[in-house]
Design goal:
This protein is an alpha+beta fold and 377 residues long. 42% of the residues lie in helices and 20% in strands. It is elongated.
């Protein structure tokens, strides 16, 4: 519109190069996924976990597919985005089926530690990831590991968001998206049109959201409210409540409590203590106070925090910490019968409940011996 109120229509353009005109466009401008249209009361903000997120073929165990973008919002709701040109007929056929498969099986594909590792690479480092997460978070005290544990939990419960990102959308795809969104309680299925217009040498992009009828908003309101409440669901009481609600873990609760109590009032309490977030993180005083050694997760697994004991990334890691870390890794490998790869030794591998619990006494005993040796040098 000119100053005299005369208007000039802009030319609507269609994308020819999906990578340059859609994928790179979105990577540089994540706010083209209109958070204020998705939730006007709590506009969504985005954290990039990975572009071209690999998806494992369950029959071969090897990467077979990839998702254009894997994001999470400030409430740790995983968000999968597929970019497609209007002229790509796959956008209304097999791509819809693939996205639904990812939603159904996402918890089999990605762990919290793997997602955190990808996000750290995307952000440019551990400190950059912490800063990026802090910029979108509603609770400043939620740690990086707690955030990704919540992402993993939401994947397991299919509390996620699937978005098709196009410059224009066919009517049949809009109908499919609206139908799915009306039927699914936990999973949002949305379509974002990145409408593009030419103005001289510049291009104007205007995002429009489709898929949220008022009926769908009402149907999902209760589930979304529960997710928002649980985003701050932290602490010891919440942890054990989660264990008790899991039929497969309930019978092991007593043994898990004994394991934690050894750190609260047993022999190990002389050297360390449990810290409660979404999970139970075990911290060794006098060795490394700002980051944990490992955590007990709500699915019963132990997540090793070897990645936090990396001398190339953290200035507070010296010879004592390295010697302790290596001795601890050797003890875990010996008692549980595993061999950590080079990559796992600098990452966050998980050990399933059924693997570590039968050896818990030996693990605790070795840990005390290692702590006694290295802290008294």
């Amino acid at each position: 519109m000119h100053e005299d109120s005369r208007t000039v229509s802009l030319e609507r353009v269609r994308c020819k190069n999906e990578d340059r005109e859609l994928q790179k466009l979105l990577e540089s401008n994540l706010n083209l996924l209109p958070g204020e249209q998705i939730d006007p009361d709590k506009p969504r903000l985005w954290l990039l976990i990975k572009r071209e997120m690999p998806v494992i073929d369950p029959t071969t165990g090897a990467p077979r597919w990839s998702i254009d973008f894997f994001l999470a919002d400030q409430y740790a709701i995983p968000t999968l985005v597929e970019c497609k040109r209007f002229d790509d007929s796959r956008s209304r056929r097999e791509v819809v089926g693939q996205m639904l498969e990812y939603a159904a099986n996402g918890h089999h594909y990605w762990s919290a530690s793997e997602m955190r590792s990808y996000a750290q690479s995307s952000a440019g480092g551990a400190e950059e990831l912490a800063a990026a997460l802090k910029s979108i978070q509603v609770n400043d005290d939620i740690s990086v590991e707690d955030f990704f544990s919540k992402v993993e939990q939401n994947l397991r419960e299919a509390k996620m968001r699937l978005i098709f990102f196009l410059e224009d959308s066919p009517n049949e795809l809009r109908s499919q998206v609206e139908f799915l969104n009306n039927q699914l309680k936990e999973t949002e299925v949305l379509l974002v049109e990145a409408r593009q217009y030419q103005q001289g040498n510049s291009r104007i992009v205007v995002p429009w959201l489709f898929g949220f009828s008022e009926a769908a908003r009402v149907a999902k309101r209760e589930s979304r409210a529960e997710t928002l409440r649980e985003s701050g669901d932290r602490g010891e009481e919440a942890f054990w409540k989660s264990i008790q609600s899991n039929d497969q873990l309930g019978s092991h609760e007593h043994a898990m409590r004994d394991f934690v109590n050894d750190w609260k009032a047993g022999p190990i309490s002389e050297y360390g203590e449990p810290w409660w977030g979404v999970n139970c993180v075990f911290v060794v005083r006098g060795m490394l106070t700002k980051r944990g050694l490992f955590s007990l997760c709500r699915n019963g697994s132990l997540e090793m925090y070897f990645g936090y004991w990396d001398e190339s990334k953290y200035k507070d890691i010296g010879g004592v910490q390295i010697a302790f870390r290596d001795a601890f890794i050797s003890a875990i490998e010996q008692h549980i019968g595993v061999t950590f790869s080079v990559k796992q030794r600098s990452g966050f591998p998980k050990i399933a409940l059924e693997k570590w619990l039968p050896h818990v006494v030996a693990i605790q005993k070795s840990l005390i011996e290692i702590l006694t040796k290295h802290l008294r040098k």
